[in-house]
Write a structure and sequence with these properties.
CATH class: Alpha Beta
Order of helices and strands: EEHHHEEEHEHEEH
Number of strands: 8
Strand order of the largest sheet: 1-2-3-4-5-6-8-7
CATH topology: Aminopeptidase
Strand content: 25-35%
Distance between the termini: 43 Å
Number of domains: 1
Radius of gyration: 17 Å
CATH architecture: 3-Layer(aba) Sandwich
CATH superfamily: Gcn5-related N-acetyltransferase (GNAT)
Length: 208
């Protein structure tokens, strides 16, 4: 069982909470409206081997069922992102591994209508602080396509290290795509990412 789940994380009008079946209409509306904005970065199903039927894309309910099962098993923290009470994105802590590794990865997307307002860096900081301080993980990584400058800026602002390239790492937008690996360990974030993010935002403009 996952002792760190369910959990709700909040900072001001930004909230991360578990994804729910009843989020379906709002989630689908945001996803549909942002289809062109997100297409280049969304995971896709690779072609089936010869002689096999292609795998269908899961429905919303199937996705939530899978995410909740993974969360209950301690392998995932599937959040939706709320801003001022409205669903504006999703953040998932996945690949949680215990034992000698104690690591996880983070993936996220946000509504184009609220992009660039500091919402996603705040959400990532909330999630990573929870992973380090409450769950006891040691390492968190984020894998991002090199072309995705807005997503790279999110983790760079928070102090993630760029570790290198994973060639043809994930099937995205119809093909296998290279990804940059960004990582952070608990020792590197001992002061807390949320505190670090607030300090950065509060600097005078000429210091940024």
């Amino acid at each position: 069982m996952n002792a760190g789940w369910p959990v709700e994380l909040a900072e001001g009008d930004i909230v991360l909470r578990p994804i729910r079946r009843r989020d379906q209409a709002e989630w689908q509306e945001v996803s549909r409206r942002n289809r062109d904005w997100l297409r280049r970065w969304e995971a896709t199903v690779p072609p089936a081997p010869p002689g096999r039927a292609p795998l269908p894309r899961p429905t919303y309910r199937q996705m939530v069922r899978y995410l909740r099962a993974e969360a209950a098993a301690g392998r995932m923290l599937p959040f939706v992102l709320l801003h001022q009470g409205r669903l504006v994105g999703q953040l998932t802590v996945g690949g949680i591994t215990w034992g000698s590794m104690c690591s996880a990865n983070v993936g996220y997307w946000v509504d184009e209508a609220v992009a660039g307002r500091g919402i996603m860096p705040t959400a990532v900081a909330l999630a990573v602080d929870h992973c380090f301080r409450d769950l006891g993980l040691h390492r968190v990584e984020v894998c991002i396509r090199p072309e995705n400058r807005p997503s790279r800026r999110v983790v760079e602002k928070l102090g993630f290290r760029e570790e290198g390239v994973r060639p043809r790492y994930l099937h995205i937008d119809g093909d296998w795509r290279d990804h940059l690996v960004y990582a952070l360990t608990a020792e590197e974030a001992a002061d807390g990412l949320l505190r670090r993010w607030h300090a950065l935002r509060n600097r005078p403009p000429y210091d940024n």
